[in-house]
């Protein structure tokens, strides 16, 4: 392994330690709409007071008023899935790993590797949580152990363009579409399902916003009303604030994750190395989320993290996200001096509880 202690008979030196670009959980937006909440329970229940409407009935004086139905309520129960993984360090790695970026082979590196492994596992877990949030919003459910679970978002809560799709190939804008007309229709009363909501924001990927800006109908509309002088820069926020003054803003969300696969390390030993995919946006191109004002400042749900045994005791389990370093080196541990090892275990027993699935509003503008 290239990171083990080495003996080099030639004159050489490590001059720099280079970290490749990785995902940054501090940029994740999904926690605004589905924040992580740790709960000391295994199942969560939510009681929903169902919507009511109607108009007061006509009444003939001298007669008894007609009775109407009182509001209803229902209870939703949520049992979360589980996510867990372990990184294993055997005796050879514990003894032989040198400190990264150091020429001195006497600098032991296992503690540095553990620190970086903790960061790696935490980023993987936060990326899983963020992806679950956005897939719940746009897919209306999730897949776990080969089974698909639905939150029951009403089909009418997802709108589509009035005319053509915004892109036909997922790369270039479709100039037969009219994104500005679509947005105005959705948020100013054209969509019957959206009329009772105050839409505050549209959240989309960079490519989706680009299809708006580069669409010939958008450019022609701006030119026809002589708006070039008023719009100081060609950005999505400036454009929409001029076309829909006082209307919702557009937030371009560009946080991403990468998938991994194991491939041959090319050293002829049969060893493997990690190969990562290109960056994948958490919000797929062509998806739009409408942030709406909800009663009492409520949000659409939570990512609920429940009980686990990675910490605490069987009588008082821990709860929430967990990341545990287990050193099995000392006598009496699972490995002990005979077969020492270190395990780093991370995970969460939890998932998205979409408590207000009936208020999740989205659009799909490509096939």
Largest sheet: 5 strands, mixed
Which H/E pattern describes the elements? HEEEEHHEEEHEHHHEEEEEEEEEEEE
Q: Helical proportion?
A: 10-25%
Structural class: alpha+beta
Number of helices: 7
Task: Report Rg.
Answer: 27 Å
Beta-strand fraction estimate = 25-35%
Q: Mean pLDDT score, rounded?
A: 88
- Principal-axes geometry comes out as flat
Distance between the termini: 46 Å
Question: How many strand elements?
Answer: 20
- Residue windows where pLDDT falls under 50 for at least 5 positions: 4-12
Explain the overall architecture:
- This protein has 367 residues and is α+β, with helices and mostly antiparallel strands.
- The chain has 7 helices and 20 strands.
- The chain has helices at 30-33, 91-96, 110-139, 179-187, 206-213, 216-224, 236-243; strands at 36-38, 44-49, 73-78, 82-89, 141-144, 147-150, 158-159, 199-204, 249-252, 256-257, 260-264, 272-276, 280-281, 287-292, 302-305, 307-312, 317-319, 322-328, 341-353, 361-364.
- Strands 1, 4, 15, 18 and 19 form a 5-stranded mixed beta sheet that branches. Strands 7-20-14-8-9 form a 5-stranded mixed beta sheet. It has a two-stranded antiparallel sheet with strand order 2-3.
- The chain is flat.
- Residues 4-12 have low confidence and may be disordered.
